[in-house]
Amino acid sequence: MKKLTFFLVYAVIVLSVFSYTSAKEKTNLKQLLHAQYTNQMADASSQLNELQKAVQQSLLFSDPTALNDSLQDVWRLSSDIRQTIGGIPLDREFTTQWMNYLGRLGNQAKLTMTSEESKTNWNKSVSNVASNLSSFSSEWDVATAHLLQEDKHYNKWLDQLSNMDVKNNFTNLSATVKSYAESDFPLTSSETDNQKKKDLIALKDKVISEKEALARFKEMFPQYEKATIRIEQSEKTAPYPFYHITFHEGIRLGYADITKKGGHLLSFLVERPVDKSTLSQEELINKANKQMKDLGFDDLEIEASRENTMAWHLNYVRINPSNKAKVYADGVQVKIAKDNGEIIGINGMEYIQKETLKDQPMKKIDWKTFFDKNVEIVEEALSYSENDKMEERLCYELTVVYYNKNVPLTFRVLVDTETGEIIKNEKL
Amino acid sequence: MRLFKVLLIILMTFTIFAMNDVHRGEAFSNQVIARGANGDDVIELQARLQYVGFYTGKIDGKFGYGTYWALRNFQEKYGLKVDGIAGTTTKKKLTAASNYNKEFVMEQLRKGNRFTHYGGKPLEQQVQQGTGTQSNTQLPTKYSDQDLKLMANAVYGEARGEPYEGQVAVAAVILNRLDSPEFPNTISGIIFQPRAFTAVADGQIWLTPNDRAMEAVIDAMNGWDPTENALYYFNPKTATSEWIWTRPQIKKIGQHIFCL
């Protein structure tokens, strides 16, 4: 009996010490987190003030150097606040809207530094931005004041976030910022163009039925004629409507998404075990090319290929028939199994709506003076690529090699054929 | 008797030499390899090109531009057709001109060591302790091996019980956030954004991902997006946030609803 009592007392003491230590550690951690969040919150407030000043300062100058300094501040501060806000647990809707607004403000400032046209736009919108930021700053102070009180710890912080009054404060802030984003930085047509994947809603093709979608799927992939197939429609709130087909046949399990308008293939992916024996690279690529042509993709060319454990990933780009230029924005990605060259994946989302390409002058550029004397041009082609303003521009696409202490460094440089501006410089 | 011994020694020497030569000839597989290829054949190609001083880059089994230029230079020097493709003739010539210590190379790769394979220098002097195992995956240039590892951890932690499509979908949501101005602009920033992923909050992100999760991330990085541009997802059975139900829904895959 004595022994049992001893063990019980001993166990109770050990448990008490353990619970006490754990509780203490937890409290310390919560205090630490609270301190960190408070610190970030305070940082966000002061950065907001700085940003407000920088935006106002940019109103003062017409001298390009002075204006650029202010714009650089706006760009840097908007990025800093985004980083800070991203690290604080705040109302998600508010955080999203606020980061969106700051992103747009920063992008606009960066664009203004490089483009005359944007400078005019900046001058038009910046006074609005300045006054919006002023009133936002006041609302922010009200909404966050009690989160910065010293005697609160992490639990209270979280309680306050879920508290109705605070939530309302943030909901108001969220709505305010959303309205600022819409008024100060409306989407330009080129930005809308950039969102082509999301803009499949604009498809004008005839709506197809579930039965027609299924027939389309079987026409493209006759090997799944006898598969167990399930077809569903996208949710009503989806930005563009599509059919979601899942199928299962033997070792193959996969899905295909097909647009309701026009029955275009958005995406197709199959999961299956892949044998260790592999076909040669040449055979695989030839097989892929043939299958793609059979599927109706007859204006594409392979731009890149990458071998991985089970499959090759191939990047196809559309070739513009008039000048044979590659259109990167109208790409199709293909996955082929290494064992037999079967296509086990197609991503055709970007190919459905082809880019509108404008005529563009082609000025001759002297590459000898354009590049360093140690740079060798090894390949020259034409391609379309998006510039900072999200416009598709015709470019000279140059693959160049630079030998740095006998080590060859390869780059792909895209130069605007009209302005000579470098649109992209990518290390390969 | 002495003559017999001499003859025996000569014969044995020839046999060893001939066996060694056969080993050299059979070293590569029959595959023709070119830019984009990945694997043991490319490892051998890089090691052999390095042995004869044409390749100065990392021996990693990835046939990129570094290997391509080295191979072209070798072809040019040896009077072969200069096409940057390792076909039968090129491989034969390279095998004859170089040595390949497969055991050494594979061991260093397994250990993740930093090493070279130059001829004329003891191999043990060409090794430096590395940082562990290295990835043999080829990704689009904008992504790194670290991105792949982090995303695979996130996908495995968040969706390991989901169908393959659902795993690609979770990876695609992370990448869609990367393109959205509403989220942090790095993959780690997105994954570790406070309250963004359950797997981060409950520590499941630190589980070791399997090959399926890795493959799902590779597909997403190569462009597949079964979510059709979703930015969020949730499990309707376990979601406690009212806010998530207000998001415009796109489609359901497995247990997850994907939304904007």
UniProtKB/TrEMBL annotation, chain A:
InterPro entries: YpeB_N (IPR048402), YpeB_PepSY1-2 (IPR014239). This is Uncharacterized protein. Residues 25-122 form the Sporulation protein YpeB N-terminal domain. GO terms for biological process: spore germination. It holds the Pfam family YPEB_PepSY1-2. Residues 167-357 form the Sporulation protein YpeB PepSY1 and PepSY2 domain. It comes from Viridibacillus arvi.
From TrEMBL, chain B:
It comes from the Bacteria. GO terms for molecular function: hydrolase activity. Residues 161-259 form the Cell wall hydrolase SleB domain. The keyword Cell wall biogenesis/degradation applies. Gene3D superfamilies: 6.20.240.60, Cell wall hydrolase SleB, domain 1 (1.10.10.2520), PGBD-like superfamily/PGBD (1.10.101.10). GO terms for biological process: cell wall organization; spore germination; sporulation resulting in formation of a cellular spore. Keywords: Cell wall biogenesis/degradation, Germination, Hydrolase, Signal, Sporulation. Residues 38-94 form the Peptidoglycan binding-like domain. NCBIfam families: spore_SleB. Belongs to the SleB family. This is Spore cortex-lytic enzyme.
